[in-house]
Every structure is written in structure tokens, then in C-alpha cells.
Write a structure and sequence with these properties.
Radius of gyration of chain B: 20 Å
Number of strands of chain B: 5
Number of helices of chain A: 8
Oligomer: heterodimer
CATH architecture of the largest domain in chain B: 2-Layer Sandwich
Order of helices and strands of chain B: HEHHEHEEEHH
Number of domains of chain B: 2
Strand order of the largest sheet of chain A: 2-1-3-4-5
Radius of gyration of chain A: 22 Å
Low-confidence stretches of chain A: none
CATH class of the largest domain in chain A: Alpha Beta
Strand content of chain B: 15-25%
Mean pLDDT of chain B: 89
Mean pLDDT of chain A: 88
Number of domains of chain A: 2
Largest interface: A-B, 18 and 15 residues
CATH topology of the largest domain in chain A: Rossmann fold
CATH architecture of the largest domain in chain A: 3-Layer(aba) Sandwich
Strand order of the largest sheet of chain B: 1-2-5-4-3
Largest sheet of chain B: 5 strands, mixed
Distance between the termini of chain B: 53 Å
Helix content of chain B: 55-70%
Structural class of chain B: alpha+beta
Number of helices of chain B: 6
Distance between the termini of chain A: 42 Å
CATH superfamily of the largest domain in chain B: Beta Polymerase, domain 2
CATH superfamily of the largest domain in chain A: Response regulator
CATH topology of the largest domain in chain B: Beta Polymerase, domain 2
Helix content of chain A: 40-55%
Strand content of chain A: 15-25%
């Protein structure tokens, strides 16, 4: 995994780089905001660690630039300023976490692991439930047979699998899968539930989705 | 044998007409038929070590008569299957459902071997338009074997396309069900006013 570290204090930059490399990460080290953006133009990263107080461009400016072109890489801000307003500004600008200086190296490493963990979970190749499996790379639903799923069908089935054993209601699904899009309606959720029922049936799975239109849904043995 | 096929085709046409009235739409896109040529009959007898006789042609070879019914929607395939089995004197000799269990390359179709009253066997292939489109391209591939190192990639991509088309067939069926359900509700409530 590749990390971009932007920290202008030379000693701290050196210590962090060595510690992260020791933990198995590839690290690019920048010493100001502009250098960080130059690195970002050339490479993709799994995590950005940005100091807020840096010359040329500060950490918040770098963060805003990154998010402005829809780059969703996790960002950890390092802040000397312990002011609540600064932390809020950082999180609102799109940071995933922050760590006030001075910090214990142990804590920094734990936060780095937490922020990069989600990505490894997403990289699971298959998700299994009952007699079917979901291929996360090919977007395929497989039991006795295979069919391809659309992005929304795939996300919907994933949510149902991850919530196996309890019901998820239509409002939750509209908010989490359609992210409150204007055209998200209970009818649309119902249509996608119906698509998935058809596709589970098409691959001859013994699992189906219980629930009524406008109601709440759960995976169950047919 | 030709007379037997013509009769079967007439019956298929009748089923199609009845279902069109029932569903409010034609369940069939098109029907193809052929009688296996004498040459390919003899080939097949030789490959299977059968004597090249009329008896082999009518009793041992199942696809002397071949009919393909290409349907609009997935459920129409199974509806049509049901109607074929209800034909008088027709008996099912063999059934292979490659829709429920697609072939490893992605091929999908429902194959029925029917024994018709004239004493012949006929192979009926039932499939949707999407399945037919896929099979057409896959068939072309069989004649272009010199794909070299791209073969594995193309075979895998064709399999992926088959799975996407299968998915679309299910979605289109779901949408049709939803429309028909809405129509039924409308008709029922409309009937109340009349």
C-alpha cells in the first residue's frame, strides 16, 4: 500500500517515513503543499497524511484540491492547532480523521491501519451467503448459474448480505444506495428488490428476499 | 417427415396465436425450422456408428426435424414449453434446460426432444431474443478458430456477455410483470365504474 506523507518539519517527516516503511508501506514524502500536489498528479495513493501547517499550500488547501477532482483517497490530517474549529474545518473539507500534535507513534500507526483497513475489506474477491456467492470483481451473482448484476443491484444485495438476520427498511435503502437522489422512490427500491428476486431465482438459489412494497427487506431461505 | 414438421409448425402457430390473445402481445419473435439434409444425416450415422438407414434417421437421430422458437421474454419460453407438452399425442423424450444451468461457455437455451404422433423425433429449441443474439455471435466464433492468443480472452468475454444478457432478460421480465400488474389493477378498478 502506498502512502503520501506531507510534513514540513524535516525530523518528524523522516521519523514518520521510516516508521511507515518499517510497517510495510511504500511512502512518498513531501515537505510542502505544492510538492504534495505534484506527487498527487503523478501517482495514486491508498492514504494521504497531511500536516495542516505547511508552506506554499497548507494541508486544508491540498485536501480541498484533492476532493475537488473527486479523489476519494482517505486523508489523515496532522494538526498542531488543537482548536475545535480547525478540526471541524478539516473534517468538513473532506478529511477522514485527524490527529493533534504531539501524538504517540503507536496511535498514528493505529489510525493508519484503521483508514487503510476499509479498502482491504472492499478488496474481498467474493462475498458468500447461503448457497450463493457475489464476485466483487466481475459483479456476478453465482449459484447453479451466473448472472451479471448492475451497480445498484450489486450494492443492494451487498447491503442485504451485510445486514443478514435483520430487516432493512425502504428509507434506509433509499438513503444508503440511492444516497437521497431525487428520483429515488419506494417504487424504485421495490423494482430493484424485484430484479434481485428474479436473479436469485435465475441462478436457482434457495435464498429469496422477504418483504412487501414500501416495507422492509431481509434475505431468507425460500 | 416434412408433413410431420409442417403439422408441428402449424400447431406452434396456433399456440402463438392463442398466447397472443391471452397475453395481449405476441410471445414469439420468430420461428425457424429445417430438416436435416441427407448428407448430414449420413455424417451423423457414421460418427455414431449407426447403419445409414431410414430406421436410424427416424428412431436413433433426434434432430432430424429441428425447430427453433425465439421468444420475446423469459417466461414466454416456459409458457410455450408448457403448451407444447399439452399437444395431443406429443411425448417428451428428453429435456435439457440450459437456461437454468447455462453451458460453461454461457450458452443458454431450452432443448426439448419431442416424439410426435407420426413416429418421428423433433428437437425444439426455445430461447429468448438475447440468447439467440448471443448464440449467433458464438456460432460465428466457431468458424474463426485462428484467434491465437486472444482465444481465452474472447471466450471469457463472451461468457461475461451471456451473463449480462441473462441478467437483462430477468430485468425485462420483471418490468413486464410490473406493467401487467399495474394494468390488472387499473382494469379491476375500471370495471367497478362500468
Amino acid at each position: 500500500m502506498k502512502i503520501l506523507l506531507a510534513e514540513d518539519t524535516r525530523d518528524l517527516n523522516r521519523v514518520l517515513t521510516v516508521a511507515l516503511e518499517h510497517a510495510g508501506f511504500d511512502v512518498d514524502s513531501a515537505f510542502d503543499g505544492e510538492e504534495a500536489l505534484t506527487y498527487l498528479e503523478k501517482n495514486g495513493y491508498d492514504l494521504l497524511i497531511l500536516d495542516i501547517m505547511m508552506p506554499k499550500k497548507n494541508g486544508i488547501e491540498v485536501l480541498k484540491a484533492v476532493r475537488s477532482y473527486d479523489n476519494m483517497t482517505p486523508v489523515l490530517l496532522l494538526t498542531a492547532k488543537a482548536e475545535v474549529d480547525d478540526r471541524v474545518a478539516g473534517l468538513d473539507a473532506g478529511a477522514d480523521d485527524y490527529l493533534p500534535k504531539p501524538f504517540a507513534m503507536k496511535e498514528l500507526m493505529a489510525r493508519v491501519r484503521a483508514l487503510t483497513r476499509r479498502k482491504t475489506v472492499y478488496l474481498e474477491k467474493t462475498l458468500r451467503y447461503g448457497d450463493f456467492s457475489l464476485d466483487m470483481e466481475r459483479f456476478e451473482l453465482t449459484c447453479e448459474n451466473s448472472v451479471h448484476l448492475s451497480v445498484k443491484e450489486f450494492e443492494l444485495l451487498q447491503v442485504l448480505v451485510r445486514n443478514a438476520g435483520h430487516r432493512v427498511d425502504t428509507d434506509f435503502l433509499m438513503a444508503h444506495i440511492w444516497n437521497g437522489m431525487d428520483n429515488a422512490t419506494p417504487e424504485m427500491v421495490w423494482l430493484y428488490i424485484s430484479y434481485l428476486r428474479g436473479k436469485l431465482d435465475a441462478v436457482a438459489s434457495s435464498i429469496t428476499i422477504s418483504g412487501e412494497k414500501n416495507g422492509s427487506y431481509m434475505l431468507e431461505e425460500a | 417427415m416434412r408433413a410431420a414438421m409442417e403439422r408441428l409448425l402449424d400447431q406452434i402457430e396456433d399456440i402463438r396465436k392463442n398466447l397472443t390473445v391471452k397475453l395481449g402481445m405476441d410471445p414469439v419473435d420468430h420461428v425457424l425450422s429445417r430438416i436435416k439434409s441427407e448428407e448430414s444425416m449420413r455424417d451423423k450415422c457414421r460418427r455414431r456408428n449407426l447403419p445409414e438407414t431410414v430406421e436410424s434417421a427416424t428412431e436413433k437421430i433426434y434432430d432430424a426435424i429441428g425447430i427453433r422458437v425465439v421468444c420475446a421474454f423469459l417466461n414466454d419460453v416456459y409458457l410455450f414449453r408448457q403448451k407444447l407438452l399439452e399437444l395431443p399425442g406429443v411425448r417428451i423424450a428428453e429435456e435439457k434446460d440450459y437456461i437454468r444451468r447455462a453451458k460453461p461457455n454461457g450458452y443458454r437455451s431450452l432443448h426439448l426432444i419431442l416424439h410426435v404422433p407420426e413416429g418421428f423425433y423433433a428437437e425444439i429449441q426455445l430461447r429468448t431474443v438475447s440468447m439467440d443474439t448471443w448464440a449467433a455471435l458464438d456460432h460465428q466464433l466457431q468458424y474463426k478458430k485462428e484467434l491465437g492468443e486472444n482465444t481465452a480472452l474472447i471466450v471469457e468475454e463472451l461468457r461475461r456477455c451471456a451473463n449480462e444478457l441473462a441478467s437483462t432478460d430477468v430485468s425485462m421480465q420483471t418490468i413486464r410483470d410490473m406493467i401487467m400488474e399495474a394494468n390488472e389493477v387499473e382494469n379491476t378498478s375500471g370495471g367497478g365504474h362500468a
